[in-house]
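Reminder to self: keep the SMILES exactly as supplied, no canonicalising. Ligand is zinc ion.
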Amino acid sequence: MAIQSKESYQQSELYRIRHSAAHIMAQAVMEMFPGQARIAIGPPIEDGFYYDFELPRALTPDDLEQIERRMREIIAADVPYQRQVVSAEEARHLFTDQPYKQELIEGLEQGGADEYGEPLDAKPEISLYTQGTFTDLCRGPHVERTGQVNPAAVKLMSVAGAYWRGDEKRPMLQRIYGTAWKTAEELEQHLVRLEEAKRRDHRKLGSELEIFVFDDEVGPGLPLWLPNGGILIEELERLAKEVELKAGYVRVRTPHLAKEDLFLRSGHLPYYAESMYPPMELEGVRYYVKPMNCPMHHKIFASKSRSYRDLPLRLAEYGTCYRYEKSGELFGLMRVRSMQMNDAHIYCAEDQFESEFMAVVGLYHEYFRVFNIEKYVMRLSTHHKQGLGKKYVDNERLWLKTEDMVRRAMVNGNVPFLEVADEAAFYGPKVDVQVWSATGREFTLATNQVDFAQPGRFDLAFVNQEGKEETPLCIHRAPLSTHERMIGFLIEHYAGAFPLWLAPVQAMLIPIADRHVGYARQVQSRLKEAGLRAEVDDRGERMNAKIRDAQKKKIPYMLVIGDREVEQEAVAVRLRSGEDRGGIPVQAFLEQARQEAEERR
Ligand SMILES: [Zn+2]
Ligand SMILES: [Zn+2]
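Structure tokens returned for the bound complex:
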């Protein structure tokens, strides 16, 4: 599995090229606004680089062209990058009229932050990089000379607003994004990938295919599912229920809100309060809409006495949760404020943990197969000592023990995984599952979390074989993620051309002339009776226009009906790819299609 780590990217030639291109761009911008441009930071990022500026006016697309032209001249001059170590005093003197640099120098001097304002363990040395007339506060690394940046492989992409230090109370700067590669071909391929991503964008396809909408009066981040989206949801839930039934889950239902006491006990208040909606008060009691389903499932576990014979107990619910995401962070279906989660909580004894955990990993694999997800990685997120008692439950012994249990289970089960420190949930280590769509875009879909804290907080217990009370472990899992995130992913993964079982309309009947409409309706009812979703296009349009429209809606089967089909009790089958399968008897089509949908091929 080729996953480039952050460290190896930082040591790559591409990183040096992009970092150097950012400096070249900054020089060009400063020359464009002599004495007026204030420069902030300009790091390399995935696929490119950016630089933040405070300028006397807003940049236009024409400006970007002019900046690009000047960049080519700087590259052609082939001047060297020179590094110099200076004292904080010298650095301050050099950047007298650059307030953002002054702030960064102060951070470097105090230690604890690098020149991008990112946290840093050691106190860094203050260094400068100079190319020609431009000097930047910079740790490097760079290429040796500007000529090593390929002018045919650099492109400025866009300008966007960005708050200084990401803080909405600080000034809004102009951020220029650029991309840089080693060769013109690589740049070209990157641009093609971007085009393809735009074509598959779930926000664009979601509205074209009438899957979901957002409405101002309903509120940001609160999607409304249209009938086509409703079908996708029903089909996903049907899949989940089938799979979970076989895997020994039982289904429960819980309310959308609960008293403050519940979330105090669970630890969501205060650990998770920032992500919760504010409370509402009723009869002197504060209620919160739930950010997670767990506390209510714990209450169901606690609703009667349990013995080891009841374990593992696997409680499943497609639960609706509400989380407060900042307006600026909302993004289509990927970041929303209301979400329906493929949730379940597994309560088990310690010696059942490994097999339960691996059974959950097995579910992930089953879903990957159904959705043709070929590339994925599991990321084990662990705690960090410094966060104990703050963002993590304060019990180091249990953290180390459960992290070790998960690690061992993954190693024993031959599951490829990466380990990242300091990204765990507040009540235990978690495994995030990242998947790649058909076009190679990365999504974080699902999490699998181990919880050693909440069962204790809820006084959950079972009587073990020795007749003694014991606290169960809890596994939180959501392999199909939330409907919002999953459907957002699937739209992009399939570019809207869903497999038959998921397609909102599975077959469009296309009568050639008015006299064929009656027969088309008969075929439609036969298909419906067989459980297939079929519609009739009885508009007075020409056949080719109807076929084109059905293709645009990405309907898997178009069934054309003319005199011959009526006579032979047949349909002429066309696929959305344009393939013409010719005429087949209605009964034969119906059986094939039903089987294809049932097997979720
Ligand atoms: Zn730099
Ligand atoms: Zn949970």
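Points to follow up:
Residues 292-294, 345, 476 surround zinc ion (ligand 2) (CB under 6 Å).
The first helix runs from residue 6 to 10.
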